[in-house]
Amino acid sequence: MVVHLIRSLVEARQRDIASGPVVPHVTPHEIRTYLESRYDFTRPAALDDVVADVEGMMRSWHVQVTHPRYFGLFNPSVTAASVIAEMIVATHNPQLATWRTSPAANEIERHTLAWLAHRFGLPPGSSATFTTGGAEANLSAVIVALTRAFPEYGRDGLRSLPAPPAIYLTGEAHDSFNKIAHVTGIGRRALRTVATDGALRMDVGDLARQVAADRRDGLAPLMVVATAGTTAAGAIDPLPEVARVCASEGVWLHVDAAWGGAAILSPRLRGHLAGIEAADSITCDAHKWFSVSMGSGMFFCRHADAVRAAFRAQTSYMPPQTAGPVDDPYTTSIQWSRRFIGLKLFMALAEHGEAGYVEMIEHQARMGDVLRDALARAGWRIVNDTPLPLVCFTRDGLVPARFLESLHARQIAWMSEVRLAGCGPAVRACVTSFRTSRADIEWVVGEMSRIAVGNCEVTS
Ligand SMILES: Cc1ncc(COP(=O)(O)O)c(C=O)c1O
Q1: Are 297 and 249 in contact (CB under 8 A)?
Q2: By three-state DSSP, how is residue 166 classified?
Q3: How far is Cα 403 from Cα 454, in angstroms, rounded to an integer?
Q4: If you compute the radius of gyration of the chain from its CA atoms, what whole number of angstroms results?
Q5: Distance (Å) from CA 430 to ligand 1 centroid
Q6: Which among 169, 204, 364, 458 would be 20 to 30 A from 7, CA to CA?
Q7: Is ligand 1 within 6 A of the CB of residue 285?
Q8: Does the Cβ of 135 fall within 6 Å of ligand 1?
Q9: Are 236 and 227 a contacting pair, CB within 8 Å?
Q10: Ligand 1 pocket, residue 174 CB under 6 Å
Q11: Is 368 a pocket residue for ligand 1 (Cβ < 6 Å)?
């Protein structure tokens, strides 16, 4: 009954969003004035009114990321199961810091993560936790790798290390690694940029050369970050070759599959992730291509002991460790108090089943192909190369910033600008919604081709 009610509510809201604008046009001043005029919190308000008002604000002042014509930065449309899961979690408000405070919730998360770890080819007993997102998962990877490579790091800090650590990644890797290098204290200069090939994939020869040169120069090569689905262009680094370099050099392999990781479920796409099973650690976000609401990241690591060593904690005010094969999550992850993040993925997987998920993922991959073909037929030039549904494109004389302004003002679609190595600015469109249809794409490409005419500079 409740499920039926919420599902119809979600579907009605979705129809409403799909028939409305994608992009808001509002200034900070407008919103601040509105809020100040209505909410000084001196008098209580009826919840019905507050809900209607907040819904109105979200309707008008929000990039509608669940709109079928949102081609954005990996923010998905969400399944009804994840909306219901959010409600259950908020109602019960379980505390997942320790096993014994939330046995059911902890076991549901463990069960879901073990299923996915197995799909990635990680061995039984690997560590896995839900995180707030990909950035936290990437941070976890660096902390655990440092702890494993330098047992003295945890107690005596970076100053005790025999050599400065270095992390290898391409210029296309996610920029969270810059912040991570900063907050872990290894410093942003510890990041070594590896060259890419014409498809923006890591050049493994350059990787091997840089690792060898750094070792000669007294640095301690710590980790290679291979990205499976780069943010800007969807490129997948050559995982088997990178894994071979890591194995021969004794360097940690972290695969950032924040978006692309979902492809592991698809028989059509999973071959592109071959080699991920060799990873020491993996980042994969449920709140990207797994289509659950934010924030729901995941961190997988084959070295469970190193994870325990990195995040160990013991205080008298926490309930004592439960006997048996369980870890208390506050001792195996960055977070302390912990929300029941994993229920959304568990419920969505349970409702749709693996086959339903495969269909959802492959539908988006097919829509990526439809977009590529429609653009090419309409005279656009595709400038990236990926099997995943992310298309970067331009045409002669196009000024992407001006073009996007026009696209957004006309409510045709939401897309963004990228600058890829080796080519100028381009337009980036990622199929992030399982609701995006062939008709949506064909209409959008038709409209884009019409407005491009006024947004191209004549080139001689
Ligand atoms: C490849 C990659 N890694 C990490 C992240 C960071 O993930 P989050 O925003 O969930 O923290 C992103 C975000 O888009 C990403 O594309």
Answers
A1: no
A2: strand
A3: 8
A4: 23
A5: 14
A6: 364
A7: yes
A8: yes
A9: yes
A10: yes
A11: no
Note whether 225 and 202 are within 8 A (CB): no
- Atom number of ligand 1 nearest to Cα 295: 10
What tokens appear for 371 in the block?
């977009």
Both tokens of 143, joined, read 């902390």
Pairing assessment for the beta strands 297-301 and 127-131 based on DSSP bridges = antiparallel
Q: Please give the Cα distance from 66 to 337 (Å, whole number).
A: 29
**Residue 460's pLDDT is what?**
40
DSSP string, 100-161: TT-HHHHHHHHHHHHHHHHHHTPPTT-EEEEESSHHHHHHHHHHHHHHHH-TTHHHH-GGG-
CB 221 within 8 A of CB 166: yes
Confirm or reject: Cβ of 170 under 6 Å from ligand 1.
no
Q: Which of 140, 142, 174, 230 to mutate to test the pocket of ligand 1 (most atoms within 8 A of CB)?
A: 174
β-bridge pairing 220-227 and 252-256: parallel
CA pair distance 374, 368, nearest whole angstrom: 10
Of the candidates 351, 286, 251, which has an alpha carbon nearest to the alpha carbon of residue 131? 286
Among residues of the chain, what percentage have pLDDT more than 70? 98
Q: Is 134 in the pocket of ligand 1 (CB under 6 A)?
A: yes
Q: Please choose from 285, 292, 341 the residue to mutate so as to test ligand 1's pocket, defined by most ligand atoms within 8 A of CB.
A: 285
Tens digits of residue pLDDT in 187-229: 999 999 999 999 999 999 999 999 999 999 999 999 999 999 9
> And the tokens for 147?
């702890």
399: left (phi over 0), alpha (psi -120 to 50) or beta: beta
